[in-house]
């Protein structure tokens, strides 16, 4: 399969398409695809989603991507690599933690990222501003682009959070407390003290001795198991999309050490983190 590559940390392209002739392909970068006009279908990993004006899609380096165009389509392609943020800011944590939250949801709902009408308008204005900034390249434009893209990721993360929460078994559609609890866990996954049962019990007005039973009763799994699975999903994303070592990932996500992370990862995935990374990042020639 064709793999398209990006030879600079950041790029924005304006494209007008009547017929899409490019075959399904993968990227060696992240892409936010914003539809300015037109209708058709976006195909991600053989799943097709109707698109229209105002839709925003995320295409990751592991996705197989193509378009079916029904009417002349104009879109903005915002392409970036991890190095873009390192080049500008010298470090990754804040932006990557926001992106990894979106990535953790992405496999479960790879359709349009914007579901709030006011946010759809806001994002469109922001993207148009990013395009102007990139074309004009005025003073401090790289910093402005970085901050603008971070803002866009925050808007996306909010829409993802409003739509639903990942990895929670059982029928909890009527339980706003469970939805709020899982969202709280996801947002504070890097803060071990806020994931303790006594803290969560206090936060959600439950007894420390009852919160575990409550969670299991409504989800079918323990609170600790849910936290571990969500952490491992973030490990998965970091192995695929960052250059952090396994030891660094273990430290940032609160595992005791690299050995502890590797043991849990192998238990849930039947493969070591290093082997997972090798397979996930092995792009076809």
UniProtKB/TrEMBL annotation:
Cited Pfam families: AraC_binding, HTH_18
GO MF terms, alphabetically ordered: DNA-binding transcription factor activity; sequence-specific DNA binding
Residues annotated as domain HTH araC/xylS-type: 179-279
Keyword Membrane carried by entry: no
Listed name of the protein: AraC family transcriptional regulator
Keywords for the protein's UniProt record, in alphabetical order: DNA-binding, Transcription, Transcription regulation
Stretch forming the signal peptide: none
The UniProt record lists the keyword Transcription regulation: yes
The organism's place on the tree of life at top rank: Bacteria
Annotated organism of origin: Fibrisoma montanum
Record-linked SUPFAM superfamilies: Homeodomain-like, Regulatory protein AraC
